[in-house]
């Protein structure tokens, strides 16, 4: 068995491969690491066959849906997962066959109702059911402290104490532990009393994870993160540097249309000389009138450089062949001391 552990902040993903057949599965992939996973698989001579989420994540953006499209392989989740993009719904006691490896599913509700652990040889991928020195929280959607008690004390902790525990999170840089070690040292497992355990879980008073609504929106419904929309737009458009634009503005370059996509108030407060005003919210509605020639070079700019990237991407989609975005925004332009014109459009 081949194992690669990839940490993203506190999130842990795993690339598990069969050394005989080179078939691999990716467990709990995170969206910012897609290239990293693919590079690791390629370097190890592995072919990713399955994308598995141990549960609906509330704290990071799952990469399973995007990778499934890219690699044309199925997304595997527990059968009760709400995500509409799951290809293979799997139940307790069932297995994913990965070459010579068998990934055994143990349904462990508690952190979420769709949580599962995966046992592969002497490894147990515990998702957020059992962490090193902690457990998953039970105060997020579909969490249930009573169910977590049963999943831990009546299932996971009864497994072989030598089993190695690989959790979906660790914030202290540890890679793994064992069932035996957790029974001996994990403070949340000290009390075997159900009521006391539930009481403790209800009183953890944890802060909400950042991006929780966005993460749940994406992981439960298959939508896109704002960062992903921006990255996709950025991959479709060329950029022009502030310095290059400054030279062209100084040279009164008539070949270039500078399109300021901020709101009127921001534009009138100070814009690039000769820039046209066309707020992003009106782009599609007014583009035919304001930019009649789709073969002109149009440079979109905004305050910080994000909205202009989306605008340039939209312009390209609409057939403006030479639309580009400013690498930076008006904030950086002003900070560089470049010329600014105050007032209405020319
Ligand atoms: Fe989680």
The tally of strands reads 19
Multimer state? single chain
How confident overall, as mean pLDDT?
95
> Could you say which small molecules are bound to this protein?
fe (ii) ion
Write structural notes for this entry:
30% of the residues lie in helices and 23% in strands. It has 346 residues and is of the alpha/beta class. 41% of the residues are buried. Bound molecules: fe (ii) ion. The site of fe (ii) ion has 7 residues, from loops.
Short overview:
30% of the residues lie in helices and 23% in strands. It has 346 residues and is α/β, with parallel strands linked by helices.
Index terms:
single chain, 346 residues, alpha/beta, six-stranded mixed β-sheet, 19 strands, binds fe (ii) ion
Question: What's the helix and strand layout?
Answer:
Blueprint: E1 2-8, E2 11-17, E3 23-27, H1 34-43, E4 47-52, H2 64-71, E5 75-78, E6 88-90, E7 95-98, E8 101-107, E9 116-120, E10 123-127, E11 130-131, E12 134-135, H3 145-153, E13 164-167, E14 177-178, H4 179-185, H5 194-202, H6 212-221, H7 226-236, E15 239-240, H8 242-250, E16 256-260, H9 264-269, E17 276-277, H10 283-290, E18 297-301, H11 307-317, E19 324-326, H12 330-335
Parallel strand pairs: 3-4, 4-5, 5-6, 10-13, 15-19, 16-17, 16-18, 18-19
Antiparallel strand pairs: 1-2, 2-3, 7-8, 8-9, 9-10, 11-12, 13-14
The structure holds fe (ii) ion.
Fe (ii) ion is lined by residues 55, 57-59, 111, 128, 136.
């Amino acid at each position: 068995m081949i194992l690669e552990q990839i940490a993203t902040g506190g999130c842990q993903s795993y690339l598990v491969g069969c050394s005989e057949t080179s078939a691999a599965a990716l467990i709990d992939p995170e969206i910012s690491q897609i290239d990293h996973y693919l590079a690791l698989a390629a370097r190890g001579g592995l072919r990713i066959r399955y994308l598995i989420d141990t549960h609906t994540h509330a704290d990071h953006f799952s990469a399973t849906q995007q990778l499934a499209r890219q690699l044309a392989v199925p997304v595997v989740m527990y059968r009760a997962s709400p995500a509409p993009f799951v290809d293979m719904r799997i139940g307790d006691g069932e297995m994913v066959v990965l070459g010579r490896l068998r990934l055994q599913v143990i349904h462990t509700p508690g952190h979420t109702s769709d949580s599962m652990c995966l046992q592969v040889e002497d490894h147990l991928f515990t998702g957020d059911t059992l962490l090193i020195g902690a457990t998953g929280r039970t105060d997020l959607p579909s969490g249930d402290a009573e169910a977590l008690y049963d999943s831990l004390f009546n299932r996971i902790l009864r497994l072989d104490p030598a089993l190695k525990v690989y959790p979906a999170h660790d914030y202290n840089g540890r890679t793994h532990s064992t069932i035996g070690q957790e029974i001996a040292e994990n403070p949340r497992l000290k009390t075997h009393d159900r009521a006391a355990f539930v009481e403790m879980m209800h009183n953890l008073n944890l802060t909400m994870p950042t991006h929780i609504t966005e993460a749940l929106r994406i992981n439960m419904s298959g939508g896109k993160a704002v960062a992903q929309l921006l990255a996709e737009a950025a991959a479709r458009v060329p950029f022009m540097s502030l310095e290059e634009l400054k030279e062209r503005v100084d040279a009164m370059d008539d070949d270039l249309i500078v399109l300021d996509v901020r709101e009127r108030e921001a534009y009138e407060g100070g814009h690039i000389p000769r820039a046209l005003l066309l707020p992003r919210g009106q782009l599609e509605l007014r583009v035919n009138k304001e930019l009649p020639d789709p073969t002109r070079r149009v440079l979109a700019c905004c305050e910080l450089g994000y909205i202009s990237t989306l605008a340039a991407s939209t312009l390209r989609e609409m057939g403006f062949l030479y639309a580009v975005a400013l690498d930076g925004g008006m904030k950086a332009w002003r900070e560089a001391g470049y010329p600014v014109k105050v007032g209405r459009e020319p």
